[in-house]
Amino acid sequence: MPAFPVRKDSFFRRRSSALLLEGTVLLGIVALTATTVFAAIAPQPRVATPVPPFMPARLVVPEARLPIELRHVAVQAEVAGLAVATRIELEFYNPNERVLEGELQFPLLEGQSIAGFALDIDGELRPAVPVEKAKGQQDFEDVTRTRVDPALLEATQGNNYKLRLYPLPGRGARRVVLEIAEILSAGNSTAAGTSASALAWRLPLQFGSPVGRLDVAVRFAGAAPLSARLGSAVLPMQRAKDENGMASLTFTRSNYRGSGVLHVALPATAVPLTLSVQEFRGQTYFYAEFDLVMHSAPRAKPRNIALIWDASGSGAARDHGKELAVLDQYFKRIGQVQVQLLTVRDTAAPVETFAIAGGNWQLLRQRLETMVYDGATQLGAMQPPSGTDLALLFTDGLGNYGDAPLSVAPIPLYAVNAASSADAGLLRRVAEQSGGAYLDLLNMTSAGAVQALGTERTRLVAMRGTGVRDLETASVYVQNGRLMVAGILTEPEAEMVLEIQAPGGVRRTRTVHLKARAPASAQGATALAARRWATLRLAVLEADYERNKAAIRRLGLDFGMLSRETSLIVLDNVADYARYEIEPPTSLRAKWQDLMASKSQTDATAKARHIDRVAADFADKQSWWDKRFPKGEPPAPPKPAAAMPGGAPVSTMAAPPPAPVPAPASMPSGAAAAAAAAAERARNESTQRSSSAGRPGVADAASQSASIQLRKWQPDEPYARRLREAKSEDLYAIYLDERPAYAASTAFFLDVADILFERGQPELGSRVLSNLAEMNLENRHVLRILAYRLLLAKQVKPALPVLQKVLALSPNEPQSYRDLGLALAADGQSQQAIDRLWEVVSRPWNNRFPGVELIALAELNAIVARQPGMDTRRIDARLLRNLPLELRAVLTWDADNTDIDLWLIDPNGERSYYGNRLTYQGGRMSPDFTGGYGPEEYSLRVAKPGSYTVKAQFYGHRQQIVAPSTTLMLKLSTGFGTPAQKDEDIVLRLSGRGDDVTVGTFTVGAAP
Predict the structure, then answer these.
(1) How far is CA 707 from the centre of its chain?
(2) Strand spans (E) along 845-940
(3) Is residue 588 part of a domain?
(4) Where is region (Disordered) located (predicted)?
(5) What is the pLDDT of residues 891-939, one digit of tens each?
(6) Phi then psi for 218, rounded to 5 degrees?
(7) Contact in structure between 154 and 132 (CB atoms under 8 Å)
């Protein structure tokens, strides 16, 4: 079954490594590389390939007081020709008392893919099934809230993965099985430490903590291995074959503390040039390797080179020593050339020109050696300057900013990678389509890279045939004399024509005859043909991810593969699979089909009723808006009841008005919360009905002056005090000095960006702020904060692609649509804004998002009122009415499963909050959000003159993964829904339960 690799810095970018707190377990087993070595068979000289370094994968459990233990690791691997499959079983033990959630983060090497995983449920391992990525995330989080046993494996960017585990029981263990498939790629003997005609397979066995027991068993189909060693220790080999004709290697270690690499050398004869065939879902797939003589010729020396340098924060993790060594040798080789240096972070810097004569590039080298690595990575800005004839791109290919993709250059482009975590597929496709190549400096020497830069090579330019379709190749270049092709056979006998271009442009064709033998058993290399084809197709599609999202999703679901659009998930019971409409493993399928039949009827009824429910709630809100509420002093509270002779109280005739409310305890959750909310709503409705009726029409929002004063919130951390006391010209240098200690803190980058914006340095403020996109691959919470802060800085254009990504990551959350809709409105895209907000109103949502439809509907109607001529035909006519407000406050926050409360104290001293949702003068508070994000909304049609204080309070959380603080975003509006609308926004933080902050005040004056 599969194998599991990790190279130095391979998953974590430099800044994210600081996230690993006490609960981190380092897993070196999750790191497999394999190197195949052959004697040179082409005119091009061979160069030594250095052994790439490895870094353990990590189990991140930030809330663990005691480190999570790795009790048992069992590795079972099978090597059959070029195919390797490894099964890794990991047993974790949580010595802490509390239940925790963990995240296993790891990379795979190029050419490797996840074949599956399993999680123990009630003592038995249950295999994972594929699911759309966003849906898998939603289902995992929903199931987590019910305290059952889900596990979710996701692909991020490049070949990086994260496995979310919940629960890790207190003083309990969990088992996880990972399966990884690989086709060995060609390398050389120097890397393997064997003869020039040997195949080398390596499995790092390094851990950051002791392993209670390590068991390793490797079987070899065909020829027995030549030798095996663990680190420098030679291992005894069992060369005798078993009943299936396989040689084997087994060993066990107790309390293993080693950090060596298992190295196995195989004879090259174990890798024949063969055609692998497999039947899968009614299709016949093949994978073939063809021997092909490779020709090469010197490339003409360029006169003007584009040097595109990724200086984003993640660029610091690249091996700059290797990069500079390549440039040094290359410039010495070509002698004289002009270089156009384009530095790219969140944006592209102005081009700098350097003239190189006699190979002397000292000025350019000094510029690169002193480069500041900071900010996000905008791949779309990495385009060669005009007038250049060759491009050198130094990047990991992991973009996270802007919406433009890395496109094919009009000149030959060489993509040079020196980072262990990279999107090799994207870089290879873009480079090869331009006529250049992808150079991985972790798997080749500087001399080899320079030779590739100065050489034109034989390459594949077209494939066609009869009896075959959907042909894919790993690379257009011959690798160690072989061309690797996969496709689908439509006839038992087929013919494939390869069009090959030699250096100088001469083309020739080669015809290959394919005969579909009966597919071999699943134990051989031939069983991997379908997955190999799917892997190659996936690499092509993901090179243009935005355009191919749907095709990527279909491929992942069809083949059970991880991709940027699909994940693998394990759920607790068959009812969960039915509830979330996920096809379960075979053992649960019959029961699942029965449950799905009844569920479809229930869902149809619920969808039909949703709009009617929203319309009824909106009718209630209109009744509130149409009422006139008193604006004078509230009556005094009633005197205590006098006692009658029999002890019975004497009641007053009139019910007292609401009195000022003391600081409350938060609303209970679950059924109790629902009951309390229903009772409160009934009381509010009764109060509304007893109010005197007011005239319908427009609000009195413009009848008196209203202003907003924000209370400036300042962080008190030492770095913030140092920055506030510094001169403006020293701010960025101080930030760089403080950054290493706060590299994993979103708060740090937010605070520094705020100060830079305040001091009139928006370009640097934007750069610092964009680091949030670098901190954690595809973390929607961090991205949401980034977008809010960009909007606060009036940088709407950069915020839009960030919010679009948030929506792609979490389409199951109404906040994703609302945030994007409001940003589109701020950008003047009113129709698109209305369409997004209508999604919030019209779709049924989880009941942890109470009242979000009415909040979005108010914003939708306000846009329609301000922008006549909008297309509202999709919108139910019962919901189209603008309800302008004199005062409005909306609170949102970034943490899931977290309860933040919006409070507003009016001139009467009365507190409006979830426990007092309708005040004496008509202030209306939306339902309480106890489960994360908000929004919570305060609305007041006509405001009594005076001062209104807006506060936010942190009540608590129900998370197993807890951030040090929660970021809050508040929008205060006057004249909401009118042409005179004015908004003020603020971003601030609360750090723990009971923490509260005064955000600002509304000051309302009497009508002139």
Answers:
(1) 40
(2) 885-893, 898-905, 911-912, 924-925, 936-940
(3) no
(4) 624-710
(5) 998 777 677 889 999 999 999 999 999 999 999 999 988 777 889 999 9
(6) -125, 130
(7) no
DSSP state of 348: B
Measured CA to CA, the distance from residue 531 to residue 525 in angstroms comes to 11
In a domain, 186, yes or no: yes
Dihedral, CA of residue 353, residue 355, residue 360 and residue 365, to nearest 10: 0
Distance CA 468, CA 465 (A): 6
Q: Which amino acid, one-letter code, is at 872? A: T
Element at 26 (helix H, strand E): strand 25-27
Per-residue CA distances from 863 to 11, 832, 834 (Å): 44, 11, 7
Q: What is the CATH number of the domain that holds 329?
A: 3.40.50.410
Q: Do residues 48 and 171 share a domain?
A: yes
The reply to whether 736 falls in a domain is yes
* Bridge pairing between strands 413-417 and 337-344: unpaired
Question: Highest-confidence range of 135-139, 484-488, 692-696, by mean pLDDT?
Answer: 484-488
Q: Is 113 exposed, middle or buried (0-12, 13-18, 19+ CB in 10 A)?
A: buried
Q: Where among 475, 508, 543 does a domain terminate?
A: 543
Whether 211 and 290 share a structural domain: no
Closest CA to 936 of 677, 709, 716: 677
Kindly state the greatest CA–CA separation across the chain: 116
Written as one string, the DSSP assignment of 632-646 is SPPPPPPPPPPBPTT
Does residue 308 share a domain with residue 445? yes
pLDDT at 652: 32
| Dihedral of the alpha carbons of 711, 715, 716, 719, in degrees to the nearest 10 | -140
Q: Is 94 in the same domain as 169?
A: yes
Compute the distance between CA of residue 348 and CA of residue 366 in angstroms, rounded to an integer.
20
End residue of a domain, out of 406, 422, 453: 453
Query: Is there a single domain that holds both residue 190 and residue 73?
Result: yes
Are 211 and 105 within one domain? yes
**Both structure tokens of 855:** 């909040």
Tokens of 493: 């006998």
Identify whether the C-beta of residue 273 lies closer than 8 Å to the C-beta of residue 38: no
Residue 392 and residue 470 in one domain:
no
527: β partners: none
Q: How far apart are CA 71 and CA 92, in angstroms?
A: 6
Spatial separation of the C-alpha atoms in residues 932 and 780, rounded to whole Å = 13
Find out whether the peptide bond into 52 is cis, omega within 30 degrees of 0. no
> If you search the block for the tokens 């066609």, which residue do you land on?
464
Quick one: residue 558, left, alpha or beta (phi over 0 = left, psi -120 to 50 = alpha)? alpha
Give a yes or no: residue 42 inside a domain. Answer: yes
Contact present, 976 and 884 (Cβ < 8 Å): yes
489 contacts 467 by C-beta, under 8 angstroms: yes
Structure tokens given for 277: 């065939």
CA distance 768 to 101: 30
Query: Which of the four pLDDT bands, split at 50, 70 and 90, describes residue 55?
Result: very low
Mean of the pLDDT values across residues 526-543?
81
- Which of 248-257, 301-310, 745-754 shows the highest mean pLDDT? 301-310
Q: Could you tell me the CATH number of the domain that includes residue 260?
A: 2.60.40
First-to-last C-alpha distance (Å) of the chain: 80
* Residue 36 belongs to domain spanning: 14-111+159-270
pLDDT tens column, 544-603 = 888 898 999 999 888 888 888 888 888 888 888 888 888 888 888 889 988 888 877 676
The structural domain count of the chain equals: 4
Give burial (CB, 10 Å; 0-12/13-18/19+) of 715: buried
**pLDDT at residue 45 is higher than 70:** no
The answer to whether residues 340 and 443 belong to one domain is: yes
Distance CA 940, CA 960 (A): 37
Residue type at 772?
A: L
Tokens of 373: 């690595």
Contact present, 262 and 309 (Cβ < 8 Å): no
pTM metric for this prediction: 0.73
- Reading the block at residue 523, the tokens are 């134990």
